[in-house]
């Protein structure tokens, strides 16, 4: 594991570079529907963020920009940032195709301040499946604070770390150590969006940051936490025990004990 951990950035970038064209063609991302109506945001995200018209927003780890452009369609002035050149190229093409104004930059998230040349934003946005690719959440939170204008806010929506300590079949037995935050080897052939996809770059490194680690990092960066909300639903089959509702929303079976599957945080800079 030591050798893999030391190469985390190289391995993870190769993994994501290869999967950009795969993801663009999968039913999971539903790009045909997105092109007809560019809105991939979750209901609680838009409700919790409110009106973003005219506000500047930077989306960290934006992949190929689907959520970034969803905020643009709602009137925000958006910048998307990702370390994968193919992802940024795809995002730029998609923005042009949809006629949405957006800026996309290739950069490691830890280098975001330099990438935007010191520009500050009303909103820093990060979502689902972002933090697990970062080894240092304290440093991430510091970058977020530097990117925010006074009075600006961080909005983070993520998969809840507790949901990953339970067994896959029933979701009722603890099988992983919640306090073991990694690094851990991960990956494998294919992708969550297409398990049958033929891929070459399959080694990745991830970290399972506890909720306490994330909250403490944000507070330690000087941001005031306005809320932490935990949600009992998610947006892919995290556990085989979950049931699908409304197309892409997964919930616990009726009558089963519930535990949080996702969470959201809003924090503000004084």
UniProtKB/TrEMBL annotation:
EC code: 2.1.-.-
Pfam family, one: Methyltransf_12
BP terms from Gene Ontology: methylation
Superkingdom in the source lineage: Bacteria
InterPro entries: Methyltransf_12 (IPR013217), SAM-dependent_MTases_sf (IPR029063)
Methyltransferase type domain span: 59-154
Stored Gene3D superfamilies: Vaccinia Virus protein VP39 (3.40.50.150)
Keyword set, alphabetical order: Methyltransferase, Transferase
GO molecular function list: methyltransferase activity
PANTHER family in UniProt: METHYLTRANSFERASE, METHYLTRANSFERASE DOMAIN-CONTAINING PROTEIN
Protein name, entry field: Class I SAM-dependent methyltransferase
Native organism: Kitasatospora camelliae
